[in-house]
Amino acid sequence: MTSALASLLVPIKRGTGPLSVVLPPAGGGVGPCLGAAAHLARRGPVQGVRASGLMAGEEPDTEVAAMVERYWAALEPLGAPSVLFGWSLGGSLAWELALRYAELGRRPAVVMVDSPAVAEPVPDDQRDHLRDLIAGGTDDEAVRATTDAHITAASGYQARQCYPGPALLVACRRENPAHAAAWRDLAGHLRIAEVDCGHFEVLASPHLAAVLGHLDEFLNSLEEA
């Protein structure tokens, strides 16, 4: 693995045991998912992945397929994880990576927190506002450019391939229900749980506790099966 690919890996907890991988949402950092990552760390090692574009000399990806290729190359040496977790765009990336592992006969559990499954273009007059919501109004040009690239990637993403393994979708009741319907059509073994909040609130207090409760229930059911 090249040093450029290795730099995309963000170890959150080292050790032995079932590996959980946390994929980045739009914006490219794993910071918004650290609460969930810390919870997953109770079960074993956790590996985060950050997006390309945040460091000098890197280019951000504007398509989910390109992000998947990059992250697959970085993660492949680690072996198949037991859990792929992602919020927003990160959940879509988790799904697409799970399809890769399925081709090798592995079926990691996929956890998607309010993740897009159907293309939903962002109007030009809303893009600046959305970028500021995601990037927190930062002046960092790399963060802003990466966020713009990810808005393009997420808004153009269309999930098309069925995944035969276990999956959990934690959906926000205040968001577009078309995404949940699309995931339901594609997943052979999908559990859907709802949280009564908006997309940008779901991993913050007090809603994070509900998300973690659904996560535990899902993973515990797989261990008991």
UniProtKB/TrEMBL annotation:
Residues 21-219 form the Thioesterase TesA-like domain. InterPro entries: AB_hydrolase_fold (IPR029058), TesA-like (IPR020802), Thioesterase (IPR001031). It comes from the Bacteria. This is Thioesterase domain-containing protein.
